[in-house]
Amino acid sequence: MIIILRENATEAQVDHVVKRVETLGFQAHLSKGTYRTVIGVIGDEEKLLAAPLAAIPGVAKVVPVMPAFKLASREAHPQPTVVDVAGTKIGGGHLGMIAGPCAVESEERMNDIAAAIKAAGANLLRGGAYKPRTSPYAFQGLGEEGLKILRRVGDAHGLPVVTEAVDPRHVELVAEYADMIQLGARNMQNFVLLTEVGKTHKPVLLKRGMAATVKDLMMSAEYVVAQGTTDVVLCERGVKGFDNACRNMLDIAAVPQIQQISHLPVIVDPSHATGRPELIPACALAAVAAGADGVHIEVHNCPEEAMSDGPQALLPEQYAEVMGQMKKVAAAVGKTW
Amino acid sequence: MIIILRENATEAQVDHVVKRVETLGFQAHLSKGTYRTVIGVIGDEEKLLAAPLAAIPGVAKVVPVMPAFKLASREAHPQPTVVDVAGTKIGGGHLGMIAGPCAVESEERMNDIAAAIKAAGANLLRGGAYKPRTSPYAFQGLGEEGLKILRRVGDAHGLPVVTEAVDPRHVELVAEYADMIQLGARNMQNFVLLTEVGKTHKPVLLKRGMAATVKDLMMSAEYVVAQGTTDVVLCERGVKGFDNACRNMLDIAAVPQIQQISHLPVIVDPSHATGRPELIPACALAAVAAGADGVHIEVHNCPEEAMSDGPQALLPEQYAEVMGQMKKVAAAVGKTW
Amino acid sequence: MIIILRENATEAQVDHVVKRVETLGFQAHLSKGTYRTVIGVIGDEEKLLAAPLAAIPGVAKVVPVMPAFKLASREAHPQPTVVDVAGTKIGGGHLGMIAGPCAVESEERMNDIAAAIKAAGANLLRGGAYKPRTSPYAFQGLGEEGLKILRRVGDAHGLPVVTEAVDPRHVELVAEYADMIQLGARNMQNFVLLTEVGKTHKPVLLKRGMAATVKDLMMSAEYVVAQGTTDVVLCERGVKGFDNACRNMLDIAAVPQIQQISHLPVIVDPSHATGRPELIPACALAAVAAGADGVHIEVHNCPEEAMSDGPQALLPEQYAEVMGQMKKVAAAVGKTW
Amino acid sequence: MIIILRENATEAQVDHVVKRVETLGFQAHLSKGTYRTVIGVIGDEEKLLAAPLAAIPGVAKVVPVMPAFKLASREAHPQPTVVDVAGTKIGGGHLGMIAGPCAVESEERMNDIAAAIKAAGANLLRGGAYKPRTSPYAFQGLGEEGLKILRRVGDAHGLPVVTEAVDPRHVELVAEYADMIQLGARNMQNFVLLTEVGKTHKPVLLKRGMAATVKDLMMSAEYVVAQGTTDVVLCERGVKGFDNACRNMLDIAAVPQIQQISHLPVIVDPSHATGRPELIPACALAAVAAGADGVHIEVHNCPEEAMSDGPQALLPEQYAEVMGQMKKVAAAVGKTW
């Protein structure tokens, strides 16, 4: 950690900072520049994070030099983690191809969609039983009934299943039915939920929040990993941008960024990132080329009747087509699924 | 609701949309322009929101004409709501002046701070017992012990108290001690928590999420109000901006915007909005002048020892000074507290 | 164009709007909904844009239904435009692979870099002679001397050259030496410069501004195209985002968006988009996979001595490597260069 | 300047950085921490900015400690600058109250508006003769004829006039007629124009670009000040935000930020910041309370006929009302005009 003092910091202020650093059990290393004094702090930075050094009079800025996430960092674990979701591998060259409707609506519909995505090559089935909806008047999911349908349909088609948990009181229930538990974008900093889900030691799909930096996402992953599991797959799904022509802005550069600072796999969700089916194929191909460890796409066989997020779903035949294209791009970058 | 068709929409597609609208129980009103066909939908728009009309082939855009929030809207309730928090009124010309440390740390410290803010004119005491922290390794609050301290200190100084709930399983407990329950920015779209807190019928302080539009904030307020209470105070506390010189960007225009579309009071939190004590006074004055129904400021008597958010707290004497200035600006715009 | 009236609009206000629309030479088509009145305006929307209908009392919102850019739109020109830059084709399946240093620094250095990128397969050489720099104290380019060096080096290696114009008074001079004129991000809405460059009828490389929506970019392209040329290549180079871990945020979805609404080719510049060499290869591959018509990469043989933007340049050997990878991805999506 | 090395930087890399710093004429001050090595660079940082130290292998990050703008900084000039625009003072407790239509449309209209704003207490008249418009088909201003009208009307009403320059070739012409030259948001980084306008030594109104950080704005001010004038007034006019309910997002915290780092006055333009007349009064009051050195408001006597930006203009009677309110708030914060 580096502490940069204000230009007009007095000697007494500098002394106070040095004393404070030493009181906290660290060494202070003073360096007087032409304009300013800088103090290098030597010791375990982790422990210093709790100390609000920036609040000391005379301090202009505190610059950490270590990542604040530890267990999720590449430094802690140089090899890429491969997450195994009931047989489907994600990471280390294996692509997790997740597809399905936004919400579980009925067993019949779920069956039809599962058959279609399986035929197209998907290796993980998604479907929400608990839906976090912006409006209190919108469809909120089928609850446990939805979980049961998802489980039966997944088993029938040989597809592991992923579904979202939104309430710490339901996490155990969700864990009973799901092979992988999703933590949604709106809950990325619901630390209570993160902790509860982490405790199940089930594979987790952690979606990036709409205003979360890559570092924020890593800190949330750290919450899960700190519960004793490294089976965490991160998901870039678009962040808030100023151009409202798209629902969100896909931050494709987050993929190589995450892979450089973390050992956890990272996939891309072009459905939520764009909200526009006609843009999904190009973004899905971009994700694979950029090195993503998988792609998450919403598929529905009758979008106009979908109970949630219909306008952004691909039709099964559109999904099959983009899967064919992704296969080729994956081969070009030395990956497969 | 208005449905704008694509330029190349076929007659069959137009017919399909019209039929679909009618099947859902609405009237369709066709209008053929020079370039495009537009369909006006007549009926209760609320019910239409669930129907993904944008997913129908040939549809270019769906434009709602009604606000999607109802109970929280100005249309539903033309007079401004005045929220009474154990005697402190917020709204309708009454300013809620909330102050206190980020977290409850100890009874002694809390007592000192409460005495200081009371002397400066604050009418509501804040302090977190459960802290949502970005890092799993940071101080997470004292829990129930913190609630007890807050309650005792509030009572001792005649200040109603507001504290945050972060877990639906603790809402009842928090409601036992608090006069007002805070829903934090990171939980603004934690709909499970919103609902649980709404059920207590306690006054609520709902903070705007970092990537939430004003409309998103209203939708979250609607979740609470839908539980049968209008005692909801909204809080603008800065949103994500591209200029990282500040922690967030204070969206001061949100104040008049909210007051025009909603009857709920809205206050401003310049502490989280800026994250920099030297910018707080100017932003606090701006808030009062812009018509905010209150100002929320973090105050700590030893920021460098604060266990959370120390660098952004004002000292008691700084708080007293800005309170004096706010008094004058409040008088200039015909308000008081 | 659709005019949505306020809920409480009076009959007199509605009449006034209708009359105003008719005075301007258009037909007004009234549609009374359950809550609001909507007026469809029939006629050439283009001409209506100048009339501030939103300013009329009682009007809530004006929704245009046609793109405001005409000559640059896909409707005006359904086939993709192929821009020919002195023999290098961009668009319609042909990729423009632009590379070179940020600034022309010396003939020797330029020669070395040109030889390297040519060997790696680049088909267009870039280099700035006039540099728009954030600081008035930074190197501003060699001016005409830089143009001469660029021309000679391009000719020596059989590479067409692209360079930026920043001053309307120098456009003619730049046009004498360059095969393609770049309009930089900071000048995307310098309409005087756009017009001046358009008049030369030289191929143009128009970079997206940091706060420009895709529609804003199209409007700026329209300025150039309105001067009588369709030889305009658009360039996505990252926009302002809230995560300052990268210099900008690459908006990869802009590529398919532009291709759907415009006939002009669009390329991607991962160098400026990320500002971090280690992220450039992944983003370059993503660009090709997403369907971009080319990729623009800054290359320097000694970044630490570069007079501008050194930290974001690839070394020649890094460029050669990513070119090899792009070749494979391009083949996977049926393109070549 | 502080250079933070990567955790895995080799001794050879550290040595190379040190040597490079010394070659450039500076002292390097090494500090080996628990995890990383940090190098403090001692000497005139200004000169170092051109050297791309971040490009050296092994370097993780370069942290400047001095502001990159010098002449515009508070350090260079501790007292606030008061800009005198033909008798109207801006800064140091004096408020510049600028009003007028977006564009000069006709002498009669200009006269009517000038009379109204003068009566309301404005002390500076604005009106554009050259308009930078997003669409090439929109009204681009009356040119020199507009300048003449503005001059005559300003003289008739005893109001100094401010108008925008958009083309370096017209700067001299604009300087002949104007008392203050505006540099618009879209041209904030048109460095050629900044320099040309700076050379006239006329008072300048420099508007913040839509994606410009406060530091970017200061760097652009430095371009003007470097031409030998400190008569530069900065203008916060809203930046790009993700909530498109408003045209832009007013960054009210920019006001105290600028006043702390610079001696130049800063005013606020709530018209462009919001684009919605009903939000302008609240934002104007906020600006005065926040300590702005003036307020810029667009006023038009018939917004529905305005040739540019009509929907965001206040009517003269609305302007008079908000001026009355601002007078009271200004008095509350000890200012006047």
CATH-scheme architecture of the largest domain in chain A = Alpha-Beta Barrel
Sketch the major β-sheet of chain A. Answer: 8 strands, parallel
Domain count of chain A: the total is 2
Top CATH class of the largest domain in chain A: Alpha Beta
Keywords (chains A, B, C, D): Transferase
Protein name (chains A, B, C, D): Phospho-2-dehydro-3-deoxyheptonate aldolase
Pfam family, one (chains A, B, C, D): DAHP_snth_FXD
GO molecular function (chains A, B, C, D): 3-deoxy-7-phosphoheptulonate synthase activity; aldehyde-lyase activity
Give a topology summary:
The structure is a homotetramer of 337-residue chains.
Chain A: E1 2-5, H1 11-23, E2 27-32, E3 37-42, H2 45-48, E4 59-63, E5 83-85, E6 88-90, E7 96-100, H3 107-120, E8 124-126, H4 144-157, E9 161-164, H5 171-177, E10 180-183, H6 191-199, E11 204-207, H7 214-225, E12 232-236, H8 254-261, E13 266-268, H9 270-274, H10 280-289, E14 294-298, H11 316-332
Helix pairs in contact in A: 3-4, 3-11, 6-7, 10-11
